[in-house]
Amino acid sequence: MADSLLLETRITQQKQYESKPFPAVISPPSSSIPIPALSLPLFTQSIKNQKPYLDSLLHGSGAVLFRGFPVNSAEGFNDVVEAFGFDEFPYVGGAAPRSSVVGRVFTANESPPDQKIPFHHEMAQVPEFPSKLFFYCEVEPKCGGETPIVLSHVVYERMKDKHPEFVQRLEEHGLLYVRVLGEDDDPSSPIGRGWKSTFLTQDKNLAEQRAANLGMKLEWTEDGAKTVMGPIPAIKYDESRNRKVWFNSMVAAYTGWEDKRNDPTKAVTFGDGKPLPADIVHDCLKILEEECVAVPWQRGDVLLIDNWAVLHSRRPFDPPRRVLASLCK
């Protein structure tokens, strides 16, 4: 049972899966606490006091939205992340252009607002990935800009029903991800991290070492580098929930890893190097869209996602919009 500050509420966008709301939504009580008394320290203390309850809510629903709490700045968001007590996850090997803001907080993918960011599990294309993600809405979008989320096991079940042979091949061979990186970040691209910020170094030897630690092949090119990752499993087993999950960046890479260096249809293949059938990839995209929940951002919202259970994406938007993120082990 939550303390009186953390109440489960309902919003119209929620879906029900196995009688659990998706996402779960937590808000402060509307009447019992006068608004001036609802302080950030009171909220972070409630998180610490109710950690087992919040953990079980996250485990049951896959995602929890905190709405209506006084989280008014990046520093305040950092305090909320710290209150949960999860270890920080360094963003090494990720593709999105981001910049550090404060403490454990950085910007979410900074690709242009007219671009959609397709569904993915955070860093599913590398062997080490965060288990929890936080997003925070500092400036709510003028229009659009939702972060749709979808339950991975639901996608797996639907794909297995519709394309059993394809899913079997994925389970047998996994996926290969190929990405061509410039030296520096390219903010016009959704996968525009250069090799220096991908591997958090300017030293080529150290970059090679960090790539090798990820199991990634790194080839130097005239103006940057090419990385080949895999074969890496595309279906994982979520032991804590005892079910298989659609844990990959297949649709994201095939439909979104496009810029002046990268052709998305070559960015991801079966683990044996054979091309993926375009019709099935687009069918998967359709399933993701059908099953997803897109809650419009409100200023101060904090969304906690279990990266094992849930894929996320981003819809195009009319600026301004500023959503910050933090990754946890």
3D architecture notes:
With 329 residues, this protein is α+β, with helices and mostly antiparallel strands. The chain folds into two domains: 7-112 and 131-138 and 298-316 and 323-328, Clavaminate synthase-like (Double-stranded beta-helix), CATH 3.60.130; 152-289, Clavaminate synthase-like (Double-stranded beta-helix), CATH 3.60.130. 28% of the residues lie in helices and 28% in strands. It has helices at residues 40-49, 51-61, 74-84, 152-162, 164-173, 195-198, 204-213, 250-256, 264-267, 278-291, and strands at 7-9, 15-17, 20-22, 24-27, 63-66, 100-102, 105-107, 117-120, 132-139, 143-144, 149-151, 175-182, 216-221, 224-232, 236-238, 243-245, 268-270, 302-306, 310-314, 317-318, 322-328. The strands form six sheets. Strands 1-4-5-18-9-21-7-6 form an eight-stranded mixed beta sheet, with helices on one face. The longest helix is centred in the C-terminal third of the chain and has 14 residues, at 278-291. The two termini are 26 Å apart.
